[in-house]
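Changelog-adjacent note: as of this version, every example in the card shows the full chain rather than a window. The one below runs 265 residues end to end.
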Amino acid sequence: MTLEAVSKSYDKIPVLKNISFHIKPGERVSLLGPGGCGKSTVLKILLGLTPPDQGAVQLMDRDMVAASEREKQETLRKVGMAFQQGGLFDFMTVEENLTFAMEHMTDMSVDEMSQKIEALLKTVKLTRTRRMFPHELSGGMKRRIGIARALATDPVVSIFDEPTSGLDPVTSTIILNMIHELGTQTETGAQLVATSSVEIAIRFAERLILINEGEVVADGSWKDLILNSTDWVKHFLSVRLIGIDIEYARELGLPDEFIRQHWKL
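Full-length structure tokens:
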């Protein structure tokens, strides 16, 4: 996945300004930034859903700017995408939602799809929801089904847009663990999570791409960035973590130097 010098404006208002980054096959990355910074626009451009005003976009070696609609669809068959609210079809049961993805994006047989659905629902601990409709599910359950659907097709690239926003800490942990577990089970390639939560970002991946006001302001290991970056980056990453229980801080893997700076030992 590559964006090179990508810019985008709406009604002459800049949303993205000369953004560049590259994500290697098999890499796990968090795209982090405050609300309204341009994260969703980055995802839309990366998927070929919105054209950039300028710049180059590559997804699995496909030029997503020059590609025809047919070529884009061929590429997107290899992508798993989970939307903020689950993105489920309201008129379909959970089973039908999962089947729809596999029917249109894989060559699985009916029996293979059925077995896959059973395994996925077992993994996300929602085996009893198979014949339920989205309106019968809680917000957290919808997210879990949405992520299961994104990974049901064994995608080469998996993208998750704010997978835990608005959810309680326990449900958020379940969802993050599920993404990691399903990603391992399905031998998924690159994984990208877009989030405004520092905690979710650092729990999901070692590498952060941090966006602010439409620009990439930092890209690297969060453990390095939280200690050795600009004042704005260090403040953005640390202000949401200072004050948590020290044992939880250690559990998150916060650097010892950072803990010594902000906790009285």
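Structural remarks: Residues 2-78+155-262 form a domain with the Rossmann fold fold (CATH 3.40.50.300).
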